[in-house]
Amino acid sequence: MPDIYHPSENSDDVAIETIFTKIVNLNDSDVVVDVGSGEGNVIEWIYNNTSANKIIGYEVSIETFNISVKRVSKNARLEIINQDIFENFPYNANIFYLYNPFSSFYVNKFADNILKLKHKCLIIYYNPVFLHIFKDRCEFIINEFEVMDGIPWVAIIEVSSK
After folding, report:
1. In sequence order, what are the beta bridge partners of 124?
2. How far apart are CA 146 and CA 15, in angstroms?
3. Whole-prediction pTM value?
4. How far apart are CA 103 and CA 120, in angstroms?
5. Domain boundaries, the chain
6. C-alpha 132, offset from chain centre
């Protein structure tokens, strides 16, 4: 079985702000999942700056999970889960944020799970290393944006049939 995790780093704060103020606007009905939430900077920014209904971070590293739990205040809108997203896929979510948390094998598996959703959703894929996986599948509509000079681009991915 291939490695599940892809080495990653925290999302840039300027990129996070640009993505969630100029490209994607969250509202109070959105359930947002940060896949591979790391130390929690994306979920913390979303919590502090949007009206998203629910924000869920999935982080498999216990050390990083513990850092994020200490960093972000616990409340009804925010949840951090120390679990592999494939063990309990959040089918109720409608926004997924990714910053390369998986190897290509598992990006395919993630795409398969997205196609099982019964409702519309957006995938926000920052610095999308494996974007070709979505481009090679006709079910996805992809819009690419440059975040800023010197900062990687983001792809907004939707399922075409929903």
Report:
1. 97, 156
2. 10
3. 0.90
4. 25
5. 13-159
6. 17
pLDDT for 20 equals 94
Q: In what order do the strands lie in the sheet with 95-98?
A: 78-81, 54-58, 31-35, 95-98, 122-126, 151-159, 140-148
**Coil, helix or strand at residue 58:** strand
Tokens representing 10 are 């925290």
**Minimum mean pLDDT among 53-62, 73-82, 112-121: which range?**
73-82
Q: CB-based burial of residue 55 (10 Å sphere; 0-12 exposed, 13-18 middle, 19+ buried)?
A: buried
Burial 96-129 (b: 16+ CB within 10 A, else e): bbbbbbbbeebbbbbbeebeebeeebbbbbbbbb
Question: Under CATH, to which class is 13-159 assigned?
Answer: alpha beta
Residue with tokens 């291939």: 2
Chain center to CA of 83: 15
